[in-house]
Amino acid sequence: MRRSVALTVNGQARTVEVEPRTMLVQALRDGLGLTGTHVGCDTSQCGACTVLMDGMAVKSCTVLAVQADGSAVTTIEGMAHDGELHPLQDAFWENHGLQCGFCTPGMIMTAADLLAGNPDPTDTEIRHALEGNFCRCTGYQNIVKSIRAAAEQMRAASVGGGGQAS
Amino acid sequence: MTVTIGAPLRRKEDPRFLTGTAHYVDDITLPGMAHAAVLRSPYAHANIRSIDTSRAVAMPGVLGVFTGTDFMEYNPLPMAWPAGGSAGLQNNVNTPRILATDSVKWTGEGVAAVVAETREQAFDALEAIHVEWEPLPAVVDAEQATQPGAPQLHENAPNNVVFTWTVGDRDGTDRAFAEAEVIVRQRLVNQRLIPNPMEVRGDVGRYDPASGEYTIWMSSQTPHIQRLLLAAFVMGVPEHKIRVIAPDVGGGFGAKIYCYADYAMVLGLSKKLAGRPVKWVETRRESYGSTTHGRDHITYLEVAAKRDGEVTGLRVKTYANLGGRLSTIGPGIPTTLYGRLLAGPYRFPNVWCEVVGVYTNTTFVDAYRGAGRPEATYVLERAMDLLADELGIDPAEIRRRNFLPPDAFPYRNPSGLGRAPNGAEILIDSGNYEPALDKALAIAGYERLDEAKAEARGRDKYLGAGLSTYLEVCGVAPSKWIGAVGEGWGAAMWESANIRVHLTGKIVLTIGTSSHGQGHETTMAQIVAGELGVPVEDVIVQHSDTQGTPFGYGTYGSRSAAVGGTAAQLAAGKVKEKAKRLAAHLLEASPDDIVYESGKLYVRGSPDRAKTIQEIAFAIDLGFDLPAGMEPYLDETAYYDAPNCTFPFGTHVAIVEVDEGTGAVDLVRYIAVDDVGNRINPLIVEGQIHGGIAQGVGQALWEGAVYGENGALLSGSMLDYALPRASWLPDLELDQTVTPSPTNPLGVKGVGETGTIASTPAVVNAVVDALSPLGIRHIDMPLTPARVWAAMQQAKG
User: Fold this and answer.
1) Where are the alpha helices (DSSP H) in B508-627?
2) Is the peptide bond before B782 cis (omega within 30 degrees of 0)?
């Protein structure tokens, strides 16, 4: 009982054969070989599997692959362009926002969702946005710092690049 | 020394983690790979009457179903660190087999394995295995397990006692208590924790029928040790026929140090499948039951003192829960790494410690971040506060009065750190505790806390401050000590490093330690780059593959920088020496006249005719023109056995507010002043402290493994076990003092565990301080709202 699911993954049209029970994270990892999205738990708590689905952060361990049919999915592999890191990736690097790196993809995708809706979050807002993402290494401090730094850089780029200051 | 040591460089290893291109075990797919899943016991204690696998074997995609009897060619797992010393010879060691054969001792012990074409098929088939169980009574509490009438786990361990181990001076301590002006007593529970690295454990095993060689990728902190243990103790295969690779490892915190049953299982399964690779990755729920836990002590604490606050004696009895069977170094943690360190930074003239190691129907317990030292620090720092409360002396003042003074070092502590049975001496080599205390108190505004407390009362909050003036033992090393006959774990503790300067110019360092988040690829490169005077980018660090790296004991005990880093530095020194000899030959000078500066070599006075280390290496590697007796290739190895451990210390201050209505604790501020010696990369050091504190705070306030009376793990998932979340923690305020370690030439001490060791008692002391107006003097962890609220109601009558 295989089903074919059509997705736009990191800007590319992809189809993947899945079972009805297959989760989006398994379709990405096993079906498409995108192993940057991680599985850290089985209770939808840890957020290591977070991806953007139609622009919104979702835990891909809790979305059936068939539910994602027709969606645009962005994973950590789709964040850098032409060898240039996304400002979030760059900020995590500069501010030591990662140690073992296992939670990092989920953290970055969650942060991307946050900054899309709130380009200038307070530390408290950042910490609340990370409620669904566990990190066991960093104590979160440098993750918060990284997201703040990325927000700053993205705001500056948006002002400088698009003249969208208001 | 160049600027690379001490520079807050961003990490060399980060790009692969940031772009999703790192490779953890579960990211590895090999051609023809099959998938294994393990059926685990639903009972905490039961006999296995029979296992019927016939239905499972017939399920779609199933390649085989195996039980414990299919792995009898392999030995039970090794236990490498008996308590030793006063506990004598341990002849009651019970360790897991690959799969249980006759009985299970905890919920989650493996009893059967399915191998199938896909992971889903393997899990489906587990459901079709029928086990006929004979449930037995269970016991989960270590103290209760030693009482008459308790369920018995193992025939060779009456009353479930693994060992009774003592250290210190019993008579002297008894005298101190007989003469004491004041005695405080408290029962403390240091609850069981579940380490929870974000990546669960897993392996990919491959047997090569042609060569008889095994390769295993495992999520491990200790690839070299695992090869040794698998070869020599479990599988009976020559060491050279096993290759262990720890690819990118998503955190460990101690839980990935050990020899687990699944290693030999996946290799054995691959052999049974004629060489098809086999992957097994635990689920998180599975991990909660089958990967080691930490802590789980019940302690009776007594402190003897004079009325002026001077401590005169410390008496401790601890029941240490070791689980249903023993893990690789389980008994060593609550003994050597706990009892011997109990006196901490204080001048206790007399210490007596008795530890009873106990079997219970729970998951096995082993080192978890800090490993024995957090338990010791918790006992000691609670003791200082209880004594301060009893005498009406400020907690900062009572610590100050009892600190070892700066001229006390080297210091032989009375809880037995210094005297291994073979005569090896471990002395506390350095320390200067008051400046860290003063700094932390100043940052915290300790003098003005009464105002803050009064202000908080106006908001129906109780505010409190808690101190932890910890001393830890890191850089776990000296082989003569750790390997002492009758005390140690029968292995050594040195580290290794090899440097090869390739013909194409890169300096490749291979090491025996194993990074799993600590940033060795950066830190170790900084050490070598600093020593050789080359850019950090030119030093490539490779690790965690037994084929291609020198043997090392691995990464734990905050030892990689102090021991492994020193080995890297020494290897670089050897590279310099050989380069100098060749430079002397090429430049027609004496080696004594060659200057090595910023990666260049020249004859003193002629810097214009300098050759770079790469040019020299190229010449040595080719070997066209070498001086008599010099071997080609610039390839140097150093093995370093440290003469001593290292002794980081510091003061942490927690400030909390407790809500009067709900008992909820809010960690308002957290100040950490740590002395970890010189800092190779301050960015990484601070990251280690942040993470360590978060884990220690987690124990104080939220985390705890909870077993039902029947032995069911009630906190058996991430949904039920409260890990710290971002919004629960404040911005941590870090500062430092620097007392370089005199033990190693880098002057480093180790920083992986300080935060965890220090923070737990600081937070508990703060909550108790906050609630002291109600007469509360102790609450056992975790200090959840329900527990705190109940204590407040009880205190209020």
Assistant:
1) 520-532, 566-586, 613-622
2) yes
Which residues of chain B make contact with A38, given a CB cutoff of 8 A? 24, 26, 198-199, 250
A150 is a domain residue: yes
Task: Count how many pairs of residues, chain A against chain B, have C-beta atoms within 8 Å.
Answer: 177
Which residue type is seen at B397?
Answer: E
Tell me the mean pLDDT in the region A141-162: 90
For residue A60, is it within any domain?
yes
**Whole-complex ipTM:** 0.97
With cut-offs at 50, 70 and 90, classify the pLDDT of residue B415.
confident
Q: Which two tokens stand for residue B292?
A: 């080691």
| Domain-located, residue A164 | no
- Rounded to whole angstroms, the Cα distance separating B243 from B223 reads 9
List of chain B residues whose C-beta atoms are within 8 Å of the C-beta of residue A93: 10-11, 14-15, 18
- Do residues B535 and B669 both lie within one domain? no
User: How many folded domains does chain B comprise?
Assistant: 3
Contact A134 B723 (CB under 8 A): yes
Is residue A36 over pLDDT 70?
Answer: yes
Q: Is position A72 within any domain?
A: yes
> Which range marks the domain in which residue B564 is found?
494-640
Final residue in a domain of this structure, among A16, A44, A78: A78
Instruction: Tell me whether A98 touches chain B (CB under 8 Å).
Output: yes
| R_g over Cα of chain B | 27
Q: Return the structure tokens found at A89.
A: 């990736």
Q: In this structure, what token pair is assigned to residue B591? A: 């080696």
Q: How many CA atoms lie within 13 A of B422 on its CB side?
A: 14
Task: Give B-chain residues touching A126 at CB under 8 angstroms.
Answer: 726
Task: Tell me the pLDDT tens digit for each residue of B470-517.
Answer: 999 988 778 887 776 556 566 788 999 999 999 999 999 999 999 999
* pLDDT tens figures, B269-321: 999 999 999 999 999 999 999 999 999 999 999 999 999 999 999 999 999 99
| A135 and B CB contact within 8 Å | yes
Based on the fold, state whether residues A113 and A65 are members of the same structural domain. Answer: no
Q: Are residues A55 and A94 in the same domain?
A: no
Q: How many CB atoms lie within 10 A of CB B91?
A: 8
Query: In this structure, are B505 and B596 located in the same domain?
Result: yes
